């Protein structure tokens, strides 16, 4: 888990990059920007709020041959080795971005390169490099007294409430290609930022594996458990799956199957589904991994625990106390009405 509230911006370099295909230029500042007490808190909110609001999905530098052939990886390694070199290296970063700005859709904009200290990652302080880009310009009005009149002046600038693109390169896991967070508010040119400029792939840590395996289970429940059993069992399967993840620090697939799948006939179905669909979730060869508690909590919020009936009635199952559904909810068939029914036992109605 990352905490960005405690960080310090040690340096800031600002450049401008145009679209190379439109013959726009690149502008590289000769010196770093001098921070002030007035602008520092505004920039911290502008740069880092999008990362605080976004789910932590980490990337890592990669290359088809070896990560050391990734240009940005080498620049980042040089900066971490000598933080005082960041301004000169920020020019290399901006030039690299300029070389990738070939597509007509790519917008020109300002590039901000920062060196950061005291970023808290998993309760440890680490240094980081921040690279940000602002693209979209907004109209705003300025007012100026001219003699006895107040004149209105139309100007353009960036909106400090919306960062267009950004990444944080954390000084951890260097051998794997560092851990990287990225945001991109403009989805039309994602390849340009992630693939062409950064050259990253998903960092397959415990957070990634936990989310992917639970998503795999959710699809198995929908596509296999529901047709084989019923909606109640689909909900209960995911209930048991999430609770298994919540109470364990390490995932072990054999224990998971024995505890979560009550119908033994579904165990070979699960294994077959994993062979067939596993590559889609990057779990085809995975049978054990550390469990990320935060990912479990996030998954619990997204999993539906409601049985929706065609008679406009909903039955909400409790994920915290799954034994209640097992003990007090029964499904049956009414011959006279030719309809299914759920029988729910209770002692008294709860007052809301």
Count of discrete structural domains: 2
Strand coverage percent = 25-35%
Largest sheet: 7 strands, antiparallel
Distance between the termini: 35 Å
Main structural class: alpha+beta
- Please tell me how large the radius of gyration is: 27 Å
- Globally, the shape reads elongated
Task: Give structural notes.
- This protein is of the alpha+beta class.
- It has two domains: 202 residues, no CATH class; 138 residues, no CATH class.
- 36% of the residues lie in helices and 28% in strands.
- It contains ten helices and 17 strands.
- Strands 1, 2, 3, 5, 6, 9 and 10 form a seven-stranded antiparallel beta sheet that branches.
- β9 and β10 form a beta hairpin.
Short description:
The chain is built from 10 helices and 17 strands.
Question: What distinguishing features does this structure have?
Answer:
352 residues; alpha+beta; 7-stranded antiparallel beta sheet; two-stranded antiparallel sheet; 10 helices
Provide the fold topology.
Layout (H helix, E strand, L loop, with lengths): L1 E2 L4 E10 L8 E2 L12 H13 L6 E3 L9 H11 L4 H15 L8 E13 L2 E11 L3 E9 L2 E9 L7 E6 L8 E6 L5 H9 L1 E3 L3 H23 L2 H17 L2 E3 H8 L5 H16 L6 E3 L2 H10 L3 E3 L5 E3 L6 H6 E6 L4 E6 L8
Antiparallel strand pairs: 1-5, 2-3, 2-5, 4-11, 5-6, 6-9, 7-8, 9-10, 12-13, 14-15, 16-17
Helix pairs in contact: 2-3, 5-6, 5-8, 5-9
């Amino acid at each position: 888990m990352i905490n960005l509230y405690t960080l310090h911006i040690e340096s800031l370099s600002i450049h401008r990059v145009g679209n190379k295909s439109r013959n726009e230029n690149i502008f590289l500042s000769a010196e770093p920007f001098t921070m002030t007490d007035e602008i520092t808190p505004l920039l911290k909110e502008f740069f880092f709020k999008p990362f605080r609001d976004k789910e932590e999905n980490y990337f890592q530098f990669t290359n088809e041959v070896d990560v050391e052939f990734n240009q940005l990886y080498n620049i980042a390694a040089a900066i971490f080795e000598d933080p005082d070199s960041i301004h000169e290296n920020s020019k290399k970063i901006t030039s690299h971005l300029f070389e990738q700005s070939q597509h007509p859709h790519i917008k020109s904009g300002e590039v901000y390169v920062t060196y950061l200290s005291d970023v808290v990652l998993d309760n440890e302080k680490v240094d980081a490099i921040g690279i940000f880009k602002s693209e979209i310009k907004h109209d705003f009005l300025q007012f100026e007294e001219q003699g006895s009149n107040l004149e209105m002046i139309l100007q353009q600038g960036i909106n400090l409430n919306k960062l267009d693109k950004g990444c944080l390169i954390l000084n951890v896991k260097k051998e794997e290609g560092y851990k990287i967070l990225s945001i991109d508010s403009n989805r039309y040119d994602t390849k340009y930022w992630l693939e062409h400029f950064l050259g990253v792939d998903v960092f397959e840590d415990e957070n990634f594996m936990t989310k992917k395996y639970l998503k795999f289970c959710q699809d198995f429940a929908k596509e296999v458990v529901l047709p084989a059993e019923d909606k109640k069992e689909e909900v209960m399967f995911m209930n048991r799956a999430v609770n298994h993840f919540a109470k364990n620090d390490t995932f072990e697939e054999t224990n998971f199957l024995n505890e979560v799948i009550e119908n033994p006939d579904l165990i070979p179905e699960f294994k077959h589904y994993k062979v067939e669909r596993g590559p889609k979730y990057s779990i085809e060869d995975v049978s054990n991994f550390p469990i990320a508690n935060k990912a479990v909590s996030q998954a619990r919020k997204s999993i539906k625990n409601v049985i929706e009936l065609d008679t406009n009635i909903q039955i909400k199952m409790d994920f915290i106390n799954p034994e209640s559904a097992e003990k007090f909810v029964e499904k049956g068939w009414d011959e006279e009405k030719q309809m299914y029914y759920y029988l729910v036992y209770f002692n008294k109605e709860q007052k809301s």
